[in-house]
Amino acid sequence: MEVKELSVPIKKGLNTGSKIKYSGVGNQGPDGVPQDVWFIVKDKPHALFQRNGSHLHTTIEISLAESIVGWRKEVRTICGRVLKVKGPRNTTDMWTTTFPDFGLPRSSDPSKRGDLIVEVDIKGPDHPGVA
């Protein structure tokens, strides 16, 4: 069996499930014709971000006290830039803010980016995750 090495270029903004076809580079089929090889793009899970198309979601934790009096936090983008987030007094669970153009490149136009959506998770006596 012959082994071939293929270089598969992954373009910016490709979505999970995108297919890349290499025609005629596979093993010969029953008819003696080399078959096509398909690669399917799959996202690798990230510790801080969840992908939704070109948009990225991340969650920051605040204390119950911070949720009552207001708060300020920093969020690092996927590219390493630090953004400042300011939350209002009486912030509720699932509060979100959006930073346009800080997500991933768009598949339709890689020169444009999706949004970074930051969600709050309040940790306190009446909230999960508090000991």
Automatic annotation (TrEMBL):
Q: What GO terms in the biological process aspect are recorded for it?
A: protein folding; translational initiation
Keyword Chaperone in annotation: yes
Q: Which CDD domains match?
A: DnaJ_C
The molecular function terms of the Gene Ontology recorded here are: protein-folding chaperone binding; unfolded protein binding
List cellular component terms (GO).
cytosol
Q: Which InterPro entries match?
A: DnaJ_C, DnaJ_subfamily_B, HSP40/DnaJ_pept-bd
TM ranges: none
The Chaperone DnaJ C-terminal domain is annotated at: 3-125
- What Pfam families does the record tag this protein with? DnaJ_C
Query: Keywords assigned by UniProt?
Result: Chaperone
Q: What is this protein called?
A: DnaJ subfamily B member 4
